[in-house]
Amino acid sequence: MASVAREAAAPATADSLDVSRAELYRDHQWQEPFRQLRAEAPVYRCENSAFGAYWSVSTYKPIVHVESLPELFSSSWEYGGITIADPAETVNFIMPMFIAMDRPQHTAQRRTVAPAFTPSEMVRLNESIRQRTGELLDSLPWDTTFDWVDTVSIELTTQMLATLFGFPWEDRRKLPYWSDWAGNIELVHNEETRQQRLDVLFEMAAYFKRLWEERAKAAPGPDLISMMIHSDAMSHMDQNEFMGNLILLIVGGNDTTRNTMTGMVWGLSQFPDERAKLEADPSLIPNAVSEIIRWQTPLSHMRRTATEDTELEGQKITKGDKLILWYISGNRDESVFPEADKLIVDRENARRHLAFGYGIHRCVGARLAELQITILLEEMAKRRMRVEPIADPERVAACFVNGYKKLPVRITRY
């Protein structure tokens, strides 16, 4: 471990253990540096990166430890927020959101939107999600190549977002477009793309401002915008905070579920014995959903900032230090998940995954994500539908969203 630390202290040279490099995810080459970090330096100081100095936290136990101490390891935008990119670098102004707040503000705002994701709401939404999923699957071409990402993953998650927001159906494709710009922290490296991102966010703000004004004049409804505007905790948000929470809910609802739906197809194709096991026994679907989410890990990391000097796994952390919790690596920790690189549909502890986070910031929409993926697998099983990739996926070049741009597939019957 000491030798690794000395290498990091070398003059400004490329650090082979800088796992924030976008090309690692674009080229699907992130496994080996994380394997090395987990074995040699589970809490590692990277001095030189495009995002500045940071600590990589790469194994399961210290990730859970940091998440369990939100006062010591802050999520607040006031300290730096939740991604490796500092907020001021991404949009030139601050957009607070409840995931990037500490208690008590976080608690009050999260409580406002939580009723949209309760077990009773999942029961209520089940029928409409199943209907939309079935209709989409029935519209797909068989024995013809098409892009699974755009045709299925994006469309299903966009329909769900439009339902949650009460968003105009004919404009629903604006939601993934905005999400792609809002969630892409790599744009901070280029002034032109930073400005383009800002323009897109202003377009989004203007559209949602109109919806906000409409819902403010109407009686409270079940959609998320209405819940926010008619709540004590969120009704007095300024424009930036409203935008921040919208981005949280859109990126959280779009990128995570959408990329898991694609990772599901790709992952099962890489482990045909596991796919055969699932096709033979659909009762494995609920557990397989957790395992697919673990294996894919659609958001690679979250950031925390130390609020005082402390120690983590023998490393001295200084007040103000940036800690990056690599969920994508924690979910491959062999000490918790044996044969962690393998997708195992009946893995006994699949639900212990960290893809939804841990502690007070655990994903508020986790149940909904699981429901959508479960229904997709169930409806595919009813139709004995096997989705076969015909080429490698085109992946997103980003260290935050672990995602897919394209996956050409064909459907066959099993």
TrEMBL record:
<dbReference type="Pfam" id="PF00067">
    <property type="entry name" value="p450"/>
</dbReference>
<dbReference type="GO" id="GO:0005506">
    <property type="term" value="F:iron ion binding"/>
</dbReference>
<comment type="similarity">
    <text>Belongs to the cytochrome P450 family.</text>
</comment>
<dbReference type="GO" id="GO:0004497">
    <property type="term" value="F:monooxygenase activity"/>
</dbReference>
<dbReference type="InterPro" id="IPR036396">
    <property type="entry name" value="Cyt_P450_sf"/>
</dbReference>
<protein>
    <submittedName>
        <fullName>Cytochrome P450</fullName>
    </submittedName>
</protein>
<keyword id="KW-0479">Metal-binding</keyword>
<dbReference type="GO" id="GO:0020037">
    <property type="term" value="F:heme binding"/>
</dbReference>
<keyword id="KW-0408">Iron</keyword>
<dbReference type="InterPro" id="IPR017972">
    <property type="entry name" value="Cyt_P450_CS"/>
</dbReference>
<dbReference type="InterPro" id="IPR001128">
    <property type="entry name" value="Cyt_P450"/>
</dbReference>
<dbReference type="InterPro" id="IPR002397">
    <property type="entry name" value="Cyt_P450_B"/>
</dbReference>
<keyword id="KW-0349">Heme</keyword>
<keyword id="KW-0560">Oxidoreductase</keyword>
<comment type="function">
    <text>Cytochromes P450 are a group of heme-thiolate monooxygenases. They oxidize a variety of structurally unrelated compounds, including steroids, fatty acids, and xenobiotics.</text>
</comment>
<keyword id="KW-0503">Monooxygenase</keyword>
<dbReference type="GO" id="GO:0016705">
    <property type="term" value="F:oxidoreductase activity, acting on paired donors, with incorporation or reduction of molecular oxygen"/>
</dbReference>
